[in-house]
Amino acid sequence: xxxxxxxxxxxxxxxxxxxxxxxxxxxxxxxxxxxxxxxxxxxxxxxxxxxxxxxxxxxxxxxxxxxxxxxxxxxxxxxxxxxxxxxxxxxxxxxxxxxxxxxxxxxxxxxxxxxxxxxxxxxxxxxxxxxxxxxxxxxxxxxxxxxxxxxxxxxxxxxxxxxxxxxxxxxxxxxxxxxxxxxxxxxxxxxxxxxxxxxxxxxxxxxxxxxxxxxxxxxxxxxxxxxxxxxxxxxxxxxxxxxxxxxxxxxxxxxxxxxxxxxxxxxxxxxxxxxxxxxxxxxxxxxxxxxxxxxxxxxxxxxxxxxxxxxxxxxxxxxxxxxxxxxxxxxxxxxxxxxxxxxxxxxxxxxxxxxxxxxxxxxxxxxxxxxxxxxxxxxxxxxxxxxxxxxxxxxxxxxxxxxxxxxxxxxxxxxxxxxxxxxxxxxxxxxxxxxxxxxxxxxxxxxxxxxxxxxxxxxxxxxxxxxxxxxxxxxxxxxxxxxxxxxxxxxxxxxxxxxxxxxxxxxxxxxxxxxxxxxxxxxxxxxxxxxxxxxxxxxxxxxxxxxxxxxxxxxxxxxxxxxxxxxxxxxxxxxxxxxxxxxxxxxxxxxx
Length: 592
Ligand code: GCB
What we know:
By secondary structure, the chain is an alpha+beta fold.
């Protein structure tokens, strides 16, 4: 799905701002086809949960409604008109006046509706968006709604971040011609010093298509025509980690010799290859440094915010992080575009977190029930999961920053049914994008001895908490166990391993001269212990600390106002470990 943009043939109106807002207490929700009787206003983009001083809103389970009036620009007569939501978490329904125009399940990918037939250029309409935060055994991520003794409803879930909901990303109104460019797929390769930019373009009925590639200075470096082909760029400038370079590809849809639509896309030329235990970008071994992150900040919840975007990338640059994982769901498209422009490498993760009933809220204490069964994670869950993969790849396939797809975080990959569940999803991912490696993120309970799916993947990502959830406070034992386990993975699977999570909850300002969990010293020693081990295991091609910053979680005895494994606090102040990481990650790396 192409992101809306302005071009000589397209216009874009942002609908962000303050919307009328109401919580729907009727179950199931009644379709909203009138003016919302409410005094509340909610900011878009923002999760709604923390905007109000009202526990009933914060903890509401079910539908909420957003509403505003929108005027269609007068000049759009004769154009197609669309409303586009960058996300509605986790399910959305859109009404134009009294007409339902779109429904969508899945909280972190965009959807849109062609509303041309129900609006008029120059006219005003009432735009109402319903959003539900409910998670069940067939949603991605999964969860469970429980009716309490007093008839109330609570939402339980198996992941360790607060179930923020609402319109956390932008909403747009845009125009595009009836005959238009409807999709573009770019692939890139190298032939000596010549870059090859493959293109595959879909239109809604154009006679032909022209393609032009320009360099960063705007000079044309290659042209082509037809809906598919390959452009050759002599002496290409590569997109490199830490040194992004972007060309711009412009596709024009032609009808009877006239250009009827134009759409432009940034293109980074780079190659990715997994060879033996190496992960190569542009033929050079790459070592990932950085973080698992969250879209999370005070008040906004998961609301996208460009100030946080800029600041977070500045902090990643300061600390020497060359990469991150979009743990545990696709991030806002602005984040991906920023990574493209600034040469940050991304492991792009589907929102499939919590497919593991042995976990409770990301940590121990879940149920003993089997994860994969008709009553729990089942074939319908897999269909939702497949759709989430399709939508992620459709959205992010053209980002040079994305070097690998992660199709799940910490599933019960040691349990019966895991292979049957995941094998078709790995095949689907490869079919949708044969150019990028595929990985999954393995949980500590699934060892190299009992994991049932690791051989399906090109790269194995590992989350390990030796020294935290096990051997807490005993870094010596933790170091021995960590090394023994990593040697086991290396020996058995002989492919790249990335440590995608390792971290210790740390209360800023809490100190000790001993190995005392929760202190700033302990977080530093814990990370240093992992680094010693990483440096002894050749198959380890990266380390991403859990987490970039402290983040909010659901209530639980193991979380004091959220997860404190951040290297930065929730308001982005460095803990001591940030300085230690900076020392390691900004030093030149020995050639592997
Ligand atoms: C994990 C999960 C992550 C949690 C983290 C923790 O393994 O992937 O979502 O937040 O552990 O801190 O427990």
